[in-house]
From TrEMBL:
CBS domain ranges (all copies): 158-221, 222-278
Membrane association type: Multi-pass membrane protein
Membrane-spanning parts: 305-324, 330-357, 378-399, 405-431, 443-466
Organism encoding this protein: Psychrobacter nivimaris
Principal location: membrane
Full protein name: Magnesium transporter MgtE
Listed SUPFAM superfamilies: CBS-domain pair, MgtE membrane domain-like, MgtE N-terminal domain-like
Cellular compartments annotated: Cell membrane; Membrane
Homology family: Belongs to the SLC41A transporter family.
NCBIfam families recorded: mgtE
Keywords, in A-Z order: CBS domain, Cell membrane, Magnesium, Membrane, Metal-binding, Transmembrane, Transmembrane helix, Transport
């Protein structure tokens, strides 16, 4: 089906003919905004019934808190549990404040252990106990297992409900079992996990082998090697393994080699997206917990810390400038050109910093390649510094007709851009060695370095060459 044009989307928006898969998220948001403004409750319910839990969650996160409550009241009951599991914690929390344990039990009765654990993370202990008592024994055990892991461990993200078979049975038995339980496999399943009598993971049995080999063949004869993930491994390291090995899922084992769950590609994609969001916020000096529609005071508070730190660094740079008050007072042109030096160094350093932090997140920087990268950035900074120094010196000469001022701005830009590139890689490496998240504070430190080096080189050279 061809993608609808904006005009078609507007027509559908007005008519209410909104197929879940056809129209863009933005136009769905605009349509729902119109319904909320009109308080058209029945129309909101009708619209939401056509959306998936992922789309409803995204729409809820696109409204301020007050409107979220209105929309949430119109979400169909049969999908509220799935929607809650897809929401960010900060969005989910207010929605659940007035939900009773009985309602939560109804929402979670058809959910898997992963989703239930996610939802119960935002309720009180008494509500949690009440809801847990309504779960069947198998699900309750799985939820409790997930809750034993720290937030950063693979175990807290794995699916404990896995399809496993023994190695000492025949293919005919496996096929018969799958036919009797036709809901076990989904459209993406291609392998079965094989264990021995003591739950030790032995490997994988592909569905292709299950079909093409003779039915009296033992499973143990067809086992393929599996790439496994330890349940206590950092989830970021697990994501790096998924990327490097190009796998869709991985069996999760404990320290004894026992199969305890399965880590799926979709969970890894969510982790990667969360990591990207976190890195973007940290680079901008915004709290990881701040969401787009957070209350005004919450957002102001979360940002004020880094604004304060930035003010301190700016005052430090100002103090450096203050040391050259005499030269600035005599040569007005220096005050005009001074921001250019800091700006060129800042952008050069930010380019390097962005590439390096991404490389760290992808697990691509470590060992001997750090020295190679440091040398590379030194030369990149020097080459770009010389090129733009010449260009800026030429512009300054046309502007002020003073060869000394042109020389000062040119040399200062070359020095600052070289230092900025080196700082762009050395600062995050240093912070990582100190167990500090580079994305959280590297940009502030880099700005301070480029400002101080830029002003020192520019005004210092001016003191020597002009006064």
């Amino acid at each position: 089906m061809p993608t609808p044009t904006p005009n078609q989307e507007r027509t559908a928006m007005l008519s209410g003919d909104y197929n879940s898969a056809e129209y863009s998220a933005e136009y769905k948001l605009l349509y729902l905004q119109g319904l909320v403004a009109d308080k058209a409750y029945e129309a909101i319910t009708e619209f939401l019934e056509k959306q998936s839990e992922y789309e409803i969650a995204n729409l809820l996160e696109s409204f301020p808190t007050q409107n979220r409550l209105l929309i949430w009241a119109q979400v169909p009951e049969h999908i509220k549990g799935e929607v809650l599991a897809e929401l960010d914690v900060d969005t989910r929390q207010p929605l659940m404040e007035n939900i009773s344990s009985q309602e939560i039990s109804l929402f979670t009765q058809d959910l898997d252990a992963q989703d239930i654990s996610e939802i119960l993370d935002t309720v009180t202990e008494s509500v949690r106990t009440s809801v847990m008592a309504t779960l069947d024994e198998e699900t309750r055990v799985q939820v409790n297992k997930l809750d034993t892991y720290a937030d950063w461990e693979v175990g807290s993200y794995m699916d404990p409900d896995i399809i496993q078979i023994r190695d000492d049975i025949y293919l005919a038995d496996v096929q018969e079992w799958l036919r009797e339980n036709d809901d076990l496999l989904d459209d993406e399943s291609q392998e079965l996990l094989v264990v021995d009598q003591s739950q030790q993971l032995l490997g994988l049995l592909s569905l292709v082998d299950l079909i093409k080999h003779k039915q009296n063949t033992l499973v143990s004869e067809l086992i393929d090697t599996a790439i496994t993930i330890n349940d206590r491994l950092d989830i970021q390291d697990a994501a790096a393994i998924f990327r490097s090995e190009d796998i869709r899922f991985a069996p999760v084992i404990n320290s004894h080699g026992e199969l305890v769950g399965q880590l799926n590609g979709e969970d890894i994609m969510e982790i990667i997206q969360d990591d990207v969001d976190s890195t973007m916020k940290n680079l901008a000096g915004v709290s990881q917990d701040e969401e787009l529609f957070a209350p005004i005071l919450t957002s102001a508070k979360s940002r004020s810390v880094w604004l304060g730190i930035n003010l301190c660094t700016a005052l430090l740079a100002a103090a450096v400038i203050g040391q050259f008050e005499e030269v600035l007072a005599q040569v007005v042109a220096l005050a005009i050109l001074m921001p250019v030096v800091a700006s060129m160094g800042g952008i050069a350093g930010s380019q390097t910093l962005t590439v390096v932090i991404r490389g760290m997140a992808m697990g691509q920087i470590g060992g001997s390649n750090r020295v190679w990268l440091l040398n590379k950035e030194l030369w990149v900074g020097a080459i770009n510094g010389i090129i733009w120094a010449i260009i800026m010196a030429f512009i300054a000469q046309l502007w002020f007709h003073d060869i000394k001022i042109s020389a000062v701005i040119g040399f200062a830009i070359a020095i600052n851009m070289t230092a900025a590139n080196v700082s762009g890689i050395s600062i995050p490496l240093m912070l990582k060695r100190m167990n500090i998240d580079p994305a959280l504070s590297a940009s502030v430190i880099l700005t301070t370095v480029t400002d101080i080096v830029g002003f020192m080189s520019f005004l210092g050279l001016a003191s020597v060459l002009i006064l």
